[in-house]
Records
---
Amino acid sequence: MVLCGLGSPLSLVPWAAALLFVLSVARALALPEICTQCPGRVQNLSEVALYCKRTPELTLQARCCLNGEGTILGLDLQNCSLKDPGPNFPQAHTATIIDLQANPLQGDLVNTFHGFTQLQTLILPQDVNCPGGINAWDTVTFYVNNQSCEGQRNICNSTEDPEICPENGSCVPDGPGLLQCVCADGFHGYKCMRQGSFPLFMFFGILGSTTLSISILLWGTQRRKAKAS
Ligand SMILES: *[C@@H]1O[C@H](CO)[C@@H](O)[C@H](O)[C@H]1NC(C)=O
Ligand SMILES: *[C@@H]1O[C@H](CO)[C@@H](O)[C@H](O)[C@H]1NC(C)=O
Ligand SMILES: *[C@@H]1O[C@H](CO)[C@@H](O)[C@H](O)[C@H]1NC(C)=O
Ligand SMILES: *[C@@H]1O[C@H](CO)[C@@H](O)[C@H](O)[C@H]1NC(C)=O
Ligand SMILES: *[C@@H]1O[C@H](CO)[C@@H](O)[C@H](O)[C@H]1NC(C)=O
């Protein structure tokens, strides 16, 4: 008797493996949601397209310019009726260039760019201020239909107050006009004043004894109930 090769269960294994492989590759290559949030793709002559073509090994996909690892280096969301950049926007925190012009953006963008430390060119509608204010950028230029914020300043260097972070902490930039104080090794807590590693054992100790006393209480009440009945 001759078995039909494709139908036999054993020959299904490579098929399943191939399918899984294709699925995992597709998953790895899936574009971040922010790249497909707006319809269409980056227009040929936009700043993001020019940047992407200028730099080798970068490719345009939907609204993003990506490197070989799929990291977002450019994002063009212009002309997309956006009132705000939306919850997926932090996916683009690695971008060097972002274009948001021709959108009815509303409100303050400061926290929108939290963590966008690589950003060097930001194109905005004319009526929206550069995040962090004029002092967070090297140059702010106004055009008829847009404005550009260029060259993100390291606010840790430009601040007049060198003592902005506590004694055992240091200042690191955290996006336009934003900074973070990071405690030195071996320090933690408010103003980096607590020494030693985080006292986990104490936390669990207290939690443990609380749980224990609640259990004893419950055990006691259950016993009383049991006696009553
Ligand atoms: C944009 O560029 C692509 C390839 O570089 C080309 O095929 C297409 O026609 C261009 N589109 C416009 C509107 O110029
Ligand atoms: C914006 O998009 C609309 C279609 O969605 C198009 O008609 C219009 O020309 C675009 N404007 C610009 C400045 O690209
Ligand atoms: C900004 O708008 C002007 C017209 O006012 C246009 O010529 C220019 O290309 C726009 N800049 C960018 C970066 O798109
Ligand atoms: C800011 O300071 C850091 C370290 O103090 C230095 O490496 C960096 O080049 C400075 N950046 C600017 C723009 O001055
Ligand atoms: C900073 O660390 C030094 C030891 O490295 C310590 O003597 C000092 O009290 C610390 N300062 C603060 C404000 O905790």
---
Amino acid sequence: MQATAPLLLLLPLLLSALPAPSHGWGVDGHLMVCQIAQARALPLTNLSLGRLSDAAAAAVKDLLPSYAGGNLSSLCSWADDVKFRYHWSSALHYIDTPDSLCSYSYDRDCKDEEGVMGRCVAGAINNYTSQLLSYGKSASPEYNLTQALLFLSHFIGDIHQPLHVGFTSDRGGNTIDVHWYRRKTVLHHVWDASIIQTADDDFYGDDVSGFIDTLTKNITGEWSEQVSSWEQCGKNQTACPDIYATESITAACNWAYKGVQEDSTLQDAYFSSRLPVVNLRLAQGGVRLAATLNRIFG
Ligand SMILES: *[C@@H]1O[C@H](CO)[C@@H](O)[C@H](O)[C@H]1NC(C)=O
Ligand SMILES: *[C@@H]1O[C@H](CO)[C@@H](O)[C@H](O)[C@H]1NC(C)=O
Ligand SMILES: *[C@@H]1O[C@H](CO)[C@@H](O)[C@H](O)[C@H]1NC(C)=O
Ligand SMILES: *[C@@H]1O[C@H](CO)[C@@H](O)[C@H](O)[C@H]1NC(C)=O
Ligand SMILES: *[C@@H]1O[C@H](CO)[C@@H](O)[C@H](O)[C@H]1NC(C)=O
Ligand SMILES: *[C@@H]1O[C@H](CO)[C@@H](O)[C@H](O)[C@H]1NC(C)=O
Ligand SMILES: [Zn+2]
């Protein structure tokens, strides 16, 4: 917590100072997704609804660097931290879909700006899933599976942020200037961080763990009947990013872009109608990260 506090304070400043597009839930969003997933390893949560299996919890613990102390959430923003060092990875955080179409297709849309196929967040989820499937099968793995775990955990979060699957010409809302209450920002950032931050301030006394607790309670309560359908993947598939990407572009059109223009001021009405969407996507991201790790590690 000591390390995250100054980072959380700095993050909005850094993001608004950078002209470059930001891609991903903010630090809080990623923390929430990973914490929900890993909470499913605690016997305390005790859900028959598919928590992290013992095998998956053990593999995660084994693959995490020792300084993480077995805590996956502490490294769920690692992929953002290395975006510049591993420049090749920056295209792997999102998907650009055709303007105004409100649909996603892997073959049509999963490519980077040079048109290289498979280089998008859905391709990356498939890539790191298949790398992790080799866990325990070789003494000298071809890939660094610690990095594969950290990328996968981050990208399953990202693909649930509706504007990570957004329109090409506005770069998922990165070029749409808006005011969030009185503060100047871009629409993409509203969905990465502002909605979460405002909810956190207004309802949880700026304590993300209270927010996570409420989501976790809803996963076992309010949403429990939907949870097994969230977890489901196609026949025999280990990861199913295409389902999540389609949901995201649909939510982007129905909620994120809807009613927003250049220089819109977004405040209470937008906040209260969109927060349930953010809550749902964070919860689904956490549940599906756990489900995917279970399918990978058995
Ligand atoms: C936990 O699991 C046990 C045994 O499966 C069950 O009896 C108990 O009601 C569960 N507790 C909660 C809080 O769900
Ligand atoms: C795991 O790390 C996160 C982020 O640093 C922190 O908020 C959380 O309290 C940690 N969880 C545990 C069980 O230590
Ligand atoms: C797959 O993973 C490798 C190792 O990190 C990386 O070099 C490659 O760019 C990745 N490709 C995709 C599409 O994720
Ligand atoms: C794998 O990646 C992690 C994180 O970047 C790094 O700390 C570790 O040294 C790497 N392992 C190997 C064998 O290169
Ligand atoms: C949890 O569910 C309650 C009851 O439907 C709802 O009012 C609340 O907004 C939900 N909270 C979160 C964080 O999802
Ligand atoms: C799915 O997996 C099961 C068990 O591994 C196998 O028997 C079945 O043939 C597979 N189905 C398809 C469509 O690949
Ligand atoms: Zn990201």
